[in-house]
Amino acid sequence: MSFLDRQPDSTPADTPVPQDPLAWQRHWHHILDAFDDHPDEVAGDKGVPDPLPDLDQDFRLLFNFWSADWPSGAEARKRAFSILPRGDQMLARIEEYLSTPAKAIDAEQATMRLRQGVDLTRRAGFEAPDPDGPVRVLASPAVSLRDAYCRAESPFVELRDGMDTMAENETGEVGAAAYHFLSEPLYRLATTYDVSSWIAWPLCSRLTAPADDPTAAAMRLWRGGWSAGWDDEGLFLYDRRQEFGLAP
């Protein structure tokens, strides 16, 4: 029987957690149960659901680990990621994201970051536009966000689509399982794959320095108030600084 077919773990909290997603899901509930200072939880939220819901419907786990005003949040996240492969590296990225204020960057800086990220993506073997090609700068009200992306993709879409396979190649079956387990919770941290892909990258590669990491560009762009796109006309940047409260 594959570890992916196991039943939910029922071992005591002080014993090793089996390396399978149902055990992780159950253990994360136990971690939340261990703290009484969560600003968004009440007594009725405590306890492990029985049966466990599908992870994408387990809203307690999707949202509650990321509460910025939770005094015990850092300790809870440390416990949660300690059971996962390369959890320390992913945790460091989470805490960096949560503790570092967003700061606007200008169009020139954004273009430079985009070109770097696209170049690294191509070097990693994934399809991406020419990093030296023209980059359009779009903004509201001239172009709405919806119109900009109605026929566009992220220039990093092929990289992201390949990350589950990279995780399996880099960290084995358990790494691929961790990648899928974390996909929805990490997305909920910032409601963008620009951030969640960057956090999960250590599962996929040992090339985690900023100069080598192809996921870093999209995250830095997001924190600087920009989103990157790729359509029939090539690369573009959409200025979201006003939307994010980072207006220059």
Textual characterization of the structure:
- The chain has helices at residues 21-33, 59-63, 73-81, 87-99, 107-123, 145-149, 157-190, 193-200, 216-223, and strands at 135-138, 226-231, 234-239.
- By secondary structure, the chain is mostly helical.
- The protein folds into two domains: 3-83, no CATH class; 107-239, no CATH class.
- The protein has a three-stranded mixed β-sheet with strand order 1-3-2.
- A hairpin with a 2-residue loop joins β2 and β3.
- It starts with 20 loop residues before the first helix and ends in a 9-residue tail after the last strand.
Give the tally of structural domains.
2
Proportion of helical residues: 40-55%
Largest sheet: 3 strands, mixed
The global form is: globular
Question: Could you write a compact summary of the structure shown?
Answer:
The chain has 248 residues and is mainly α. Helices cover 45% and strands 6% of the residues. The chain has two domains: 3-83, no CATH class; 107-239, no CATH class.
